[in-house]
Amino acid sequence: MHLDSFLSYLSVIKGRTSNTIRAYQRDLSRFIAWLNNQNVGGMDDVRREHIVDYLRYIRTEGLKARSAARALVSIRQFFSYLMGEKIVATDPTFMVRIPKQSQVLPKALALEDIEALIECPKDSTAAGIRDGAMFELLYGTGIRVSELVNLRLAGLNFDIGYIIVMGKGEKERVVPFGGEARRKLERYLSVSRPELLSLKGGGGTRESEFLFVTRLGKNMTRQGFWKLLKGYALKAGIMGDISPHTLRHSFATHLLKGGADLRTIQLLLGHSDIATTQIYTHLTHKELKEAHRKHHPRN
Description:
Blueprint: H1 3-12, H2 18-37, H3 48-60, H4 65-84, H5 111-118, H6 126-141, H7 145-149, E1 156-157, E2 162-166, E3 172-176, H8 179-197, H9 222-235, H10 244-257, H11 262-269, H12 274-277, H13 279-295
Antiparallel strand pairs: 1-2, 2-3
């Protein structure tokens, strides 16, 4: 039902990432399978009622409101493409409301937990020096874990103090880093990285375009970094769930508390819409309200 041509359009014309294309494929394959079970002949036979029934169906199957909202966005983009290609005459998603999502406030670590985590890796081993540099850079810049593990050596500029990051939608941005990150990166590049790239039992070294590498000479993966983070968080005594995104949330929250404006934080995080960044103001407002409740004499 035109799914393959739509996915090719996303890749070739729109330049969407492979992860984004897989998400569209997953959402739309599920939707098309449901349409087939409903004996809907083709996309030009899909009506608004089908969309509403489908959203109701996936919610009863256990999908959360956030996932249902993403599914509707995928379906809307699909029908927008089909209308542009003159395959369908009308858009059945028109006037279908996005499922209401409960707002989940980001979890930010306390500064002492951040410091404990960053200083947890052993500074006497190649892997420990690398891990400390990764933690420092992730918290110090607020980049995504996917952006961290895909950093290129050529994108690191010590003279000015910034990294070139390839973000969502293949959008490139420049992100500054501070003195602590510089110190740890310099040590990693001069001591740790050459050791990790050294060939065992040989006199040569492997090469890699990636900034952070493993003992195999390959770039660090998201899954590998996640596993490292979990282990170090346990050693540092940090309770509760922690993920790479926790450090990104902490970066943004601590910046906002320190007086940075939303526009600056938006640019650093690489958010295309400032509405995405505004969730951090809700967190701050909640804390202000709690402080008022605790300390104001009329409360």
